């Protein structure tokens, strides 16, 4: 082989030709007839179809240019769709406020083929499942820790002074308000607490037995002392029989002391009738002499009177018979205690128990 002649390879023809062979052309004419015409013109066929001005070459050149323009437009259309898709991916990433690293991952996923997308999605699903299992394990561990902390809290849980004061205010309120039973004060107070847990900062009242039992013990213990306090603030019921203090003045004193806020500016018949009944019960007990700290029997008699009224008129204080009873007992009390006498001064508490 001569050194001046380059070795011939299988690709020599392709390199020497400025255009690819017909079999490798990207764009083809529209029909088989044009195929033949172009072949004859290019490889020495009958030149009779060509005029002096080269009209045959002009026709073939126009067709090639037309198909080139079609291919270029197709390429431009595909590029536009790709740019539009990239823009949409960018907009979605911005809307979801992805960081730079996740933005790159989103674009890489968009450009990947379908197989890679499926594989990547499956891997991400496995990663999420692994993270979820880790979170569930942590939650289980935290739940156990919370249970242990709750147990410790229950063992040392106690009402704050402010909570105790609010509970006492609640019990006192049930002593002055219109009612159908003085035996259900604890139950009524517990029902009120359950429906107003946030007011007393006792959100766990309905779920923690320790809290419920502690509050019940406080209510029972406090009620005994509050009943005695109420009777004393009534300015010694037994002396008020002789004091002839007007009903409105006596009721206002009790409301200001025992009614929960907001206190009524105008005292309704329900409270006036309650105070009138309490004073009527005290009347036959006024002459009795009781040892200090002994049970005067006031609350026992008052509860019995209330049971008899309920048996006669039912337990709905809004019924007409109850309203008529209120009007009648208020009128009777005002007739009996009509003098404008001042309230007597408080005396030492006798420590009455229920």
UniProtKB/TrEMBL annotation:
Residues 1-69 are annotated as: Disordered. Residues 48-66 have a biased composition (Low complexity). This is Uncharacterized protein. It comes from Athelia psychrophila. The lineage of its organism: Eukaryota, Fungi, Dikarya, Basidiomycota, Agaricomycotina.
